[in-house]
Amino acid sequence: MRLNSLKPGAGSRRTRKRVGRGISAGQGKTAGRGDKGQRSRSGGYSKVGFEGGQMPLQRRLPKVGFSSRKARFVAEVRLHELARVDDETVDLAALKAAGLVPKSTRRAKVFLSGTIDRAVRVVGLGVSRGAREAIEAAGGSVEA
User: Fold this and answer.
1) How many beta carbons lie within 10 A of that of residue 79, not counting itself?
2) 47 falls in which pLDDT band (50, 70, 90)?
3) pLDDT score of 133 more than 90
4) The sheet that has 126-127: what strands, in order across it?
5) Residue 116 phi, psi (nearest 5)
6) Are 62 and 44 contacting, i.e. CB atoms less than 8 angstroms apart?
7) Which SS3 state, helix, strand or coil, does residue 106 take?
């Protein structure tokens, strides 16, 4: 087999329709463009979504929703979930290892929700005021 002998499988590609080649060809005279009008002419053009001056569909429908681009990389952690981290030091890598935040997370913040029983050292995470007080009351510490 040679590269110059490669061909598509039989019947897999249709031959293109040759338009404007006489009446017997089936696509003569107007070449399938119909009679008159902008679209029948060469260079006949209309903007995508143009509806002849009528208010286009994408402008008739209301704007909906908002998708934050930051939200994909920021995670929230509840205070009682810190107990699931094996280490005494809780940082972003430890949270990822424990499966508390997705692997794509770049920043995380600890919120006061539930209680914490053991002393933990929180490093490099955002911490709410209430969560900070609860961590320090349990004998732990928070470092920036």
Assistant:
1) 22
2) confident
3) yes
4) 74-78, 107-111, 126-127
5) -130, 135
6) no
7) coil
